[in-house]
Amino acid sequence: MTETVKALRIQLLKPSTTIGVQWYSLGLALLICMGLFGVIHGSSTPYTGRTTGALAAFYLSGVGVQPWLVNQLFPFSMALSVTRRAFIQATALLVLAEAVLAGLGLAALNQIEMHTHGWFVQMRLLNLPYVHQDSYFAQALVYGVPMMALTSVTAFLGAVFRVFGQVGLWAFSVGMAFLSAVVVAILVLTHSMGHVGHFFTTQPMLADFALYPLALVVLFGGGWAVLMLRSRA
User: Is the torsion defined by CA of 22, 24, 25, 31 positive or negative?
Assistant: First the structure.
């Protein structure tokens, strides 16, 4: 058994936590929304007004997985003689697999939603107007890549906490808030805010949701790998 496979098996000791929690959340959100829209099925609310934000439950429910892996399973893996490099490689494979599963799975559920006319109650949970793609695989990219980006960001935050502790995480948060404020101030003072917004709103949705989030994957994923290489066991 290679070191990477060993590390991957350790991370999958609790698949309900590492992979399943997002799907449990989505299933629960689906059932709740079906019940709510089933009750108002006979109302005059048009189909365009039956859009829900329940898809956010799928993404937000997984934000604690990577910090848990970094701060709980990483020391456990080190105790079992797994190298840092093997742990990083295994985590990267897991993140990629989660993104592929999220993309293909949500795209498949989106097809079911369309063919059942909104889960039989005329609601829009997955087939949202601002993420809709005609191609199945383009739709999978729109669903899957943001998952990878969000996972990369949360993994990086977990690594910051692992290496620098609570004070380091606080300092990073303050620094990011300050940098964001400076950027916004510059855009406002140069009257460029509207141009930036116009740029992204005129881009294809595939670019906004699948291409540009890859920059976050490279930035935060690379930072996470560097921090994990120097992390204490």
Answer: positive
Question: Cα separation of 3 and 93, whole Å?
Answer: 13
Q: pLDDT 10s per residue in the chain (233 long)?
A: 588 898 999 888 888 878 888 999 999 999 998 888 888 765 556 656 678 888 898 999 888 888 888 888 899 888 888 899 999 999 999 999 999 999 999 999 999 999 998 898 888 899 888 888 989 999 999 999 999 999 999 999 999 999 999 999 999 999 999 999 999 999 999 988 888 888 888 888 888 888 899 999 999 999 999 999 988 76
CB 80 within 8 A of CB 10: yes
Q: Please count the CA atoms within 13 angstroms of the CA of 151 that sit on its side-chain side.
A: 25
